[in-house]
């Protein structure tokens, strides 16, 4: 762990590595290959995770980035900011996941890499969920599907050599294939960030600057902030975001919850505004 930290591996990534190593060693103990788990020793402490407060984007920034995205990818912003989907879940949205009649989006798969090969897989943590589909997002999806008809894409399920699964994907590349995450980030997302003034345009021949806090995950943070500001409870938000533990949602977003005084002012003001 010390060597990993010296090499710049810190925070949640280091914690994940530690957890995986500990689990592997526990399995070795169970199988009789080791007398005890070294990670269980009192002298071994898991890496600490730096807790940085999420600073959500403004609505103005969300729509500025959307406007700067290529037209065929603009509705991705709506699914992130309006439904709270992760990037892989957005790339994996298929026609049969959208229920316009009940205004519901079924989050049942993502598009990810397995041994450098694109595959369909369950959402992160294997947690399937239904999220509300707001009217404006539904309208954006209808318009997108009219302009860019869904395409049948066949990919392995879960692993590179898994059974083939065919889905009619909402988002595809200009040549009709699935969208590669790396290409999307480098060629569309970062360019949109620059177009919206979030990051600078690079010098000729130079790459865009790294801006991890402004990846597509920022759209999920925006979604969470909007729901909390409207008074949504943590349990419901955790369900919509696909968090298995509402405690995680609370730790990440507690500082965005309106105070009781603020909620009271808004509630009473809204009542008086109607009379």
UniProtKB/TrEMBL annotation:
It comes from the Bacteria. The lineage of its organism: Bacteria, Bacillati, Actinomycetota, Actinomycetes, Kitasatosporales. This is Tyr recombinase domain-containing protein. Gene3D superfamilies: 1.10.150.130, Intergrase catalytic core. GO terms for biological process: DNA integration; DNA recombination. Belongs to the 'phage' integrase family. Residues 52-269 form the Tyr recombinase domain. CDD domains: INT_ICEBs1_C_like. PANTHER family: PHAGE INTEGRASE-RELATED, PROPHAGE INTEGRASE INTD-RELATED. Keywords: DNA recombination, DNA-binding. GO terms for molecular function: DNA binding. The keyword DNA-binding applies.
């Amino acid at each position: 762990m010390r060597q990993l930290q010296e090499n710049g591996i810190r925070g949640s990534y280091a914690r994940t590595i530690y957890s995986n190593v500990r689990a592997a060693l526990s399995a070795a103990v169970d199988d009789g290959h080791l007398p005890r788990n070294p990670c269980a020793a009192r002298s071994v402490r898991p890496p600490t995770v730096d807790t940085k407060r999420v600073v959500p984007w403004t609505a103005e920034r969300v729509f500025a980035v959307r406007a700067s995205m290529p037209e065929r990818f603009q509705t991705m912003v709506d699914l992130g900011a309006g439904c709270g989907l992760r990037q892989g879940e957005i790339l994996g949205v298929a026609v049969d996941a959208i229920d316009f009649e009940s205004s519901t989006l079924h989050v049942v798969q993502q598009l990810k890499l397995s041994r450098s090969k694109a595959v369909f897989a369950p959402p992160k943590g294997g947690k399937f969920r239904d999220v509300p589909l707001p009217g404006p997002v539904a309208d954006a999806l209808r318009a997108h599907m009219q302009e860019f008809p869904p395409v049948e894409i066949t990919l392995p399920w879960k692993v590179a050599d898994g059974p083939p699964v065919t889905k009619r994907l909402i988002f595809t590349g200009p040549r009709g294939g699935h969208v590669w995450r790396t290409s999307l980030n480098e060629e569309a997302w970062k360019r949109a960030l620059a177009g919206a003034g979030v990051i600078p345009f690079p010098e000729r021949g130079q790459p865009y600057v790294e801006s991890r806090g402004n990846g597509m995950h920022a759209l999920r943070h925006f979604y969470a902030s909007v729901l909390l500001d409207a008074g949504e409870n943590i349990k419901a938000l955790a369900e919509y975001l696909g968090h298995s533990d509402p405690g995680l949602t609370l730790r990440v977003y507690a500082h965005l919850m309106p105070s009781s005084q603020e909620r009271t002012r808004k509630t009473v003001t809204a009542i008086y505004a109607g009379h």
